[in-house]
Design goal:
Structural class: alpha/beta
Number of helices: 14
Strand order of the largest sheet: 1-7-6-5-4-2-3
Bound molecules: pyridoxal-5'-phosphate
Helix content: 40-55%
Length: about 475
């Protein structure tokens, strides 16, 4: 006899009237948040206990009404939600969210496609084809490049360096996917002194070791030195599997490795693989004003970038491109499972280090289709203009030092006490005061042993007025500290 299964009460929530109320109220909450962004204080709540009190409750036996949960979540989370998507968030390198991308993200969630396979959602697969083709054109990469949509640049590095590992070892007759690295010929990895931490992360995950790399010196802006790469390459045995990691856009200064000359040096070695970290810097290719910064980038073998930074789509969204699709697929395709149904079209499991995955192509598609080439260009140029404006505005004060050449959207700032006191101490104090004031948010860093304030302009909604208000807030924080 078949046991009678009790219908869960929770399914009541899916009934028409409840669903309407739930979705409508959620849209209202979301809209309220979006509308509040330009004026909401940009602050990080330090009162973790109050957040825990409202959010970390005992799991109930019977559950709660769906709408009640959403109301409680929105209320309880609110003090701990950072206005990161707003116009005066200059911390790290954080993109905003274009409204069209937020809308596409809602649909992505609603459609709930498993974008691992074409048969699980043909639209998700086909939209990635459009996104891949558009971006290859926008960045000026080789036409036949393959691409994978990842969670971020970290996993884009992982994807690209897995393809690199495959290619350089296959060339010496080693099947790394089947045999792993046990007993494999050694892979020589060369990185810049200013390589982003996620390059080391990817090497760490791929068994290539984040510390057993050759580190090539960088200049005062953080650009890899051409002569130092030549020396490093000369020390690698002929025909040894070799991977060179370059950078387009230093996370602190925005500086670009001189890609053309560096790639030319790497190319003198047969079979050396060149990977480029262009998390935000690759987008410089979208504007004729900054395109020279990535000159020669198309001669690399793989490129990693983000959509959740400068394209301003919601988290999480990264992109990996590989010039030779065969290496990409060989490295990423998981062992065949008999229950999977592959298609003659795009099955994303061949291109991303994931199996089941979110259909994250929809947001990128919507953002690019909405902006067009001119829109992406103007997004990049506006951010660069505002970075320049903020640097100039700050530099008018005699106590301010701009520590980098502002070539893109990044500004590094130091503060010098008028009375000749400790500059590092003052700089850290200004960063802290600005963070507490809540007009804008930014973070500190250490640059060439000095404390520095970082400004990263990466949001479509940041206006000249936001920039002026932010400069005034930074200088007023400096004044208040000087008065003490
Ligand atoms: C942000 C950043 C990364 C890492 O990107 P995620 O999207 O956070 O994984 C890598 N490289 C550079 C230069 C970056 O700015």
């Amino acid at each position: 006899m078949i046991a009678r299964v009790r219908t869960l009460d929770a399914t009541d929530a899916a009934r028409g009237a409840d669903l309407d109320a739930l979705i409508e109220r959620t849209a209202e909450l979301a809209l309220g948040y979006l509308r509040s962004l330009p004026d909401r204080p940009v602050r990080v709540d330090q009162d973790v206990e109050s957040l825990r009190r409202s959010l970390v409750i005992p799991l109930t036996e019977d559950g709660e009404d769906a709408l009640a949960v959403i109301e409680a979540l929105a209320r309880g989370a609110d003090p701990g939600i950072v206005a990161m998507a707003g116009p005066r968030y200059f911390g790290f390198v954080i993109g905003g969210s274009l409204p069209v991308a937020v809308a596409a993200d809602w649909l992505t969630t609603t459609w709930d496609q498993n974008a691992g396979l074409y048969v699980c959602g043909p639209a998700a697969s086909v939209v990635e084809e459009a996104v891949g083709a558009w971006l290859i054109e926008l960045f000026g990469l080789p036409r036949a490049s393959s691409y994978g949509l990842t969670t971020g640049c970290q996993m884009a590095h992982f994807t690209c360096l897995a393809a690199a590992r495959h290619a350089v070892l296959a060339r010496v007759g080693w099947d790394v996917e089947a045999r792993g690295l046990f007993g494999a010929p050694e892979v020589h990895v060369i990185v810049g002194a200013e390589a982003h931490a996620t390059v080391g992360g990817a090497l760490q995950y791929l068994g290539m070791g984040r510390d057993r790399v050759t580190v090539v010196a960088a200049d005062e802006q953080g650009r890899m030195r051409v002569e130092s790469l030549r020396e490093a390459m000369a020390a690698v045995p002929r025909n040894a599997p070799t991977i060179v990691c370059l950078q387009a856009g230093n996370v602190n200064t925005g500086a670009f490795d001189p890609l053309g000359p560096l790639i030319a040096i790497a190319r003198e070695r047969d079979g050396a693989w060149v990977h480029v970290d262009g998390a935000f810097g690759l987008w410089a290719a979208a504007s004729p004003r900054t395109r020279h910064l990535v000159a020669g980038v198309e001669r690399a073998d793989s490129w990693a970038t983000d959509a959740h930074k400068w394209l301003n789509v919601p988290y999480d969204s990264g992109l990996a491109f590989v010039a030779n699709a065969e290496h990409h697929a060989a490295a990423l395709t998981p062992p065949h499972a008999t229950y999977l149904e592959y298609s003659p079209t795009r099955d994303q499991v061949h291109w991303s280090p994931e199996y089941s995955r979110r259909a994250r192509g929809f947001t990128v598609y919507a953002a690019l289709r909405h902006l067009g080439r001119a829109g992406v260009r103007s997004l990049v140029e506006r951010c660069c203009n505002i970075a320049r404006l903020m640097a100039d505005g700050l530099a008018r004060d005699a106590r301010v030092r701009i520590l980098n050449d502002v070539v893109l959207n990044q500004v590094l700032v130091g503060f010098v006490p008028a009375d000749g006191g400790d500059a590092d101490e003052l700089t850290r104090a200004v960063v802290k005061r600005v963070q507490e004031d809540g007009v804008l948010w930014l973070s500190g860093t250490t640059w060439h042993g000095m404390a520095a304030m970082r400004i990263s302009v990466s949001n479509w909604s940041t206006t000249v007025a936001d920039a002026e208000r932010s400069v005034a807030a930074i200088l007023s924080a400096l004044d208040s500290l000087a008065r003490r």
